[in-house]
Amino acid sequence: MKYGIEFRHLHYFACVAEELHFSRAADKLGMAQAPLSQQIRQLEERLGTRLFRRTTRRVKLTPAGEIFLRHAQEILGGIDRAVTHTRSISGEDSGTIYVSGVHVALSHVLPPVISQFRKRYPAMTVDVQVLGTAQQLELLQSGKIQVAFIRPTNPAGFLKTEHILKEGFVAVLPRDHRLVGKSDLTVKDFAGEPIITYAPTVGASYYHAIMDALRRAGVYPVIAQEVSHTLAIGTLVAAGVGIAVAPSWLAHNPSPYLVYRPLPDIPAEVELLVAWQAEEKSKIVLDFLETTRRVMAEAGNSLIRSSHFEPV
User: What structural domains and CATH numbers belong to the chain?
Assistant: First the structure.
């Protein structure tokens, strides 16, 4: 390597940084403490900076060490992903598959998908992250994740997508609100109420679906506050700032301060897609996608009934 830094240097450094104790790190690595200290000194010499502050009592990362740790972890993680991906293409059925999704994917789609996938690949680990669509697309393009559950987005050459489901909406009300006791709640009941809603530029088209429904009902909303995330809507409604319309997955996030009511007069029109790299060759990844298709086809009806979803 250009700077004489080798994989072992990064591995040793990351272990010491995690333990902040040379003796424990040496035990974890299965080596003596003296050669471990020598390797760390060698790394520091090649970088031209100190990575640790050492005293008789403690070991602490320097500011340079904290920065280098982030890069080292990214490199080590990239190597792990590369090995897993390579093995999966060659037919190996152990390693890690990296999957991400918006909240509704993690709460409603991925549990049964992962359960079925692991029956076929019990040695595979499924690493799951909850992320917004934009972040997922960046990680998918860079190869840091292999499968993403996203909201509709502009077509991209590196990407393939399939529709999974459409999502409905619920009213989000403070527990003591007058509308809690009303049966058959509709969007018209929001007239004159302070409403918490999404900022127009965020919310995976939630904003447009909600505002269109209000306009169709002849309701001109009194906007109390705009937010960038659904969980923030729940928090502000619970605090009494206003009431809201939110995607139905929020109803599965119980709160002692909130009541959720279905709003059938707003169409289930916010879609969820599964996405992967267009040139994907990994048998493991392709099997994960096929498991997703099968599980959604088999479980779609029960999912719809319990959560105001509709098939695409």
Answer: 7-84 (1.10.10.10), 91-163+279-310 (3.40.190.10), 169-267 (3.40.190.10)
